[in-house]
Amino acid sequence: MKRFPIPILVIFITFYFISGTAKGQSKTEYFMQSSFERGSLNPALRPNQGYMVLPVLPSFYGEVKTNTLNLDHLTRKAGGERVTFLHQSVDADDFLNRMKNNNYVIGAFSYKLFGLGFYRNDDFWSIDLDIKTHVDATIPKSVFELVKKGFGRQEQTKYEIENIRATGNGKLELGVGYSRPLINDNLIVGGRMKGLIGIADFDLNASRLTVDAGTEYWEAQSSVLLKASMPGIKVKHDEEGKFDGFELSEGKRISATGWGAGFDIGAQYDLSETFPGLNGLTISAALTDIGFIRFGRKNAVFLESPETTVRINPNDYTLHTDGSSSLNDVFEDVVEDLQSAVDLQETEPVKRTVPLRSSLNIGTEYRLNERLSFGVLFSNYFGTYFNSPELTVSANFVHAGWLGLTGSYSVMHGAFNTLGFAAHLAPPKGIRFFLASDYIFPHVNSHFFPTKSKALNVQVGFSIPMGEKLHR
What we know:
The chain has 6 helices and 26 strands. By secondary structure, the protein is mainly β. The strands form 3 sheets. It has a 21-stranded antiparallel sheet that branches. A 3-stranded antiparallel sheet has the order 1-13-12, with no helix packed on it. The relative contact order is 0.19.
């Protein structure tokens, strides 16, 4: 049997990688006419040439975003070295004042297994097969207060922790898109239908965790519900019969645990004919990922904490105050104690419907000529527990019809520390290459980890051009 860790661990692992490294599409590519990937943001945005993507020519996207938990918040410099927030030199009140009441994390990764886009007269069709994963998590400030202050107090202190939430899934997505021009070709409308196969999913809701912390022991009461679906998943117990994570049956093949459907809708309108004084100006808008996945009782587990008091002896966090511990060591101890405080017990699973995480994109572009344009894009990701808005401004340049360059700045997560950049080598024949990131981080430590960035993403891939190249 293979052990599968408790999903609460996913939260802290995600925090760790946000601090140490860097949703399915780079916004910097929104106004690049050579990009077929921009159709993921708005199905009415069509590339200037058909395309084909094959597994041997990979195309993938990865992203992590947070509102507070970057490396500069979780670590500090002390004596020329970087130490964790538990170090004795880090003032507790100063550290906690930098935290928000709710600290969130978004993580996403997608890989295109196959893609095909082609023109039939004025109509554009696309077929894409992708593997997509995501994690949304939110953790309250009180958790960090407990870890930083709780064990060091000389008297018993009660901490009321509410709404530790985390959810995530992995799915296979088959999308069929269509777009066409209307109203003298000034208006382009587009849509995409998606068939979804759920591979794995989890939903953790720790609505209440009361901890009475002191120097000798902790007493905890909790209200926690955990739902998970995965092929061959089973609950694992320790020697005392308590929940100890998950395990997967050996030899169990990846299979569907849920089925669903979704769609995208979008439009683009050229204002030149309607308003002659606005020649070169276009506006666009789209809603994406509207839909759901339905998970069954098979290959699912539900766990719930009883209304009982649990006494635990927490790890001695004072061991982490000398600067020798890594963030990984700290979070391992935190997870171990939180898991001990929550006595999860198995209950009968039921069918459940999980909505997709939708996004809104609204853009406007002013094209000076065939080579240069400027764009502004507002986007909002509707997460499970929070919204993540972003405003991106960009300048877009095309050279000789085969080289596309874009520079961008994302206002809300950039914090004047990051810029975006995209480059497309887009010859009309052969192989095309693209590379894009909305958050290029200039501030790194000696290990080349970003220190101030609150958002990191990268998109890279290859495609084969098909059909004649359009000249607009």
